[in-house]
Amino acid sequence: MKKIISKVILSSIAIATVGLVNAQTIDAKAKKILDDVTANYNSKKNSYFKFSFGSGMNGSVTKTEPGIYYTAGDKYKLKIMDTEQVFDGNKIYNINSDDMEVTIAKPNGSSTMFSPINYLTNYRNEYNVTYNGKKNVNGINTEFIKLTPIKANGIKYVYLFLDSTKKQMVKIEQHGNNKDVAVIAIKEYKENQEVDPNMFVFDKNKYKNYIITEL
């Protein structure tokens, strides 16, 4: 489980698309839903998500762990188990408290991070988008949207489930070419909270005993 989480979180550095080979297709209805949800989140001073992170193989989730995600503007903090990722608007800090390691890197221009809202922006240039109708997810009547990569990036497809009434994300399923699956199911959402001004700041003094690698 730990290796899977680290792999997913570190994908923000490792996965990048270099160019587009095929023409992109985006369903108009799906685009409207995605843009409405994006505009809703962008209108907030900050957002907080509490979610469950599930992983498994062959489309079946076998393990789940809790996670939290804070975002304000282009900054964010993501934490799952003993792995934390912070983006301060300039660099990405991957912190593993179990291995006592920190990796620091500049984000790729078209990087992909598996978070509650990353695909709301990434779909615009990197995926074909189709609207697959409505689907009930944990009692919520959601809009089901499928993203398929234009260029090979290790992902076979992504399923997004959105509440178009509240204009919020409900669930994300990421299916890899190697048959692995990662799922984020949002359990709690809060917005416009008073947060610590150092929420998105990496302080090296707190990690004196860690191995710190800057890429």
Automatic annotation (TrEMBL):
<dbReference type="InterPro" id="IPR029046">
    <property type="entry name" value="LolA/LolB/LppX"/>
</dbReference>
<keyword id="KW-0732">Signal</keyword>
<dbReference type="Pfam" id="PF03548">
    <property type="entry name" value="LolA"/>
</dbReference>
<feature type="signal peptide">
    <location>
        <begin position="1"/>
        <end position="23"/>
    </location>
</feature>
<dbReference type="InterPro" id="IPR004564">
    <property type="entry name" value="OM_lipoprot_carrier_LolA-like"/>
</dbReference>
<protein>
    <recommendedName>
        <fullName>Outer membrane lipoprotein carrier protein LolA</fullName>
    </recommendedName>
</protein>
